[in-house]
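Researcher: Excuse me, tokens okay?
***
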Amino acid sequence: MIAGSNHKSTLKRKRQTLLDSGSGKHIFHRVDKPIFKRTKLTGIAAEAISNVVGEVGTLKNVIQLDNAPANLISVGKLFEDKKWRKFIITKNQDNAQENTGGAF
């Protein structure tokens, strides 16, 4: 709450999208063109069930998981789909916090 105001803050934290080399599936909070498909997901610390798959941009067969803390793009799935040949990740030597990546 803002001091002296009766209005609640409407700011929302933007959900990150991460490139994940450990995931075998693309997982997003929301998908386009949703269809019913029951999928069991097993992670390091938990399991989840999704009933929806769809598309996100050019990504196909993306699992919708409403409570996903971040959107995941699976590196392995990108290579399986033959949309990418390689990824190059470089580190900025002047700033350890700044990394860049590219796909070809």
User: Anything to note?
Assistant: The two ends are 46 Å apart (CA to CA). The longest strand covers residues 32-42. The first helix runs from residue 75 to 80.
